[in-house]
Specification:
The structure holds 2 protein chains of 2 kinds. Chain A is mainly beta. Helices cover 0% and strands 52% of the residues of chain A. Chain B has strands spanning 4-7, 10-13, 19-25, 31-37, 44-50, 53-56, 64-67, 73-78, 87-94, 104-105, 109-113. Classes of the chains: A mainly beta, B mainly beta. Chains A and B meet through strand 5, strand 6 and strand 10 of A and strand 5, strand 9 and strand 10 of B.
């Protein structure tokens, strides 16, 4: 069975500082990985996804993530955080095969940005 | 812009009074999902449709039902809402293309049960 662990429930960073949100997954084969962001009272927005190819993927809003098979990780990074990045971030994993599949979400990391 | 729309954004219902939440999409996706999300938790999949085929999660209470009259619309019916059903309900869609099934979410409906 697939699973996702986001070990940090809350993270606080200063505006302008760099950010790394951790995500570890469990899946028996090559996974299909996603990062979503959710602002308060809103739905989830896809930031980026990894299916295959280059292990460093670029997303929207200046985010990137790196797939590391050896560490079963897919950490999200941003070099300089803006106050508008304050939100909850969800990592998700699904099978890397076939058509649509059910996706498993992590429990989320809430990001606070301080001036 | 292609999108997923949910109505209403906020819904207040009384304990035991049936309520229906709606979702529509302009993405022409085959698959539509309903999630329940409680505060500071991950979204929990209730069920999904692949075209007209309904797929219920094993732990989804019988109190929750769904209808998909056509490709664009999907409804979530809660037959007898309890206080524990107060949550954000998220609708999502995806294509069924191989290895391109990322989900697109609507803004959600916040349900309050009084």
């Amino acid at each position: 069975a697939q699973s996702v662990t986001q070990p940090d429930i809350h993270i606080t960073v200063s505006e302008g500082a760099s950010l790394e949100l951790r995500c570890n997954y469990s899946y028996g084969a090559t996974p299909y990985l996603f990062w979503y962001v959710q602002s308060p009272g809103q739905g989830l927005q896809l930031l980026l996804k990894y299916f295959s190819g280059d292990t460093l993927v670029q997303g929207i809003k200046g985010f990137e993530a790196e797939f590391k098979r050896s560490q079963s990780s897919f950490n999200l990074r941003k070099p300089s955080v803006h106050w508008s990045d304050a939100a909850e971030y969800f990592c998700a994993v699904g099978p890397n095969s076939g058509g649509y599949q059910k996706v498993t979400f992590g429990t989320g990391t809430k990001l606070q940005v301080i001036p | 812009d292609a999108m997923v729309i949910q109505n209403p954004r906020y819904q207040v219902t009384q304990f035991g009074k049936p309520v229906t939440l709606s979702c529509s999409q302009t993405l022409n996706h085959n698959v539509m999902y309903w999630y329940q999300q409680k505060s500071s938790q991950a979204p929990k999949l209730l069920f999904h449709y692949y075209d007209k085929d309904f797929n219920n999660e094993a732990d989804t209470p019988d109190n929750f039902q769904s209808r998909r009259p056509n490709t664009s619309f999907c409804f979530l019916d809660i037959r007898s809402p309890g206080l524990g059903d107060a949550a954000m309900y998220l609708c999502a869609t995806s294509s069924n293309r191989v290895n391109s099934y990322e989900q697109y979410f609507g803004p959600g409906t916040r349900l309050t049960v009084t």
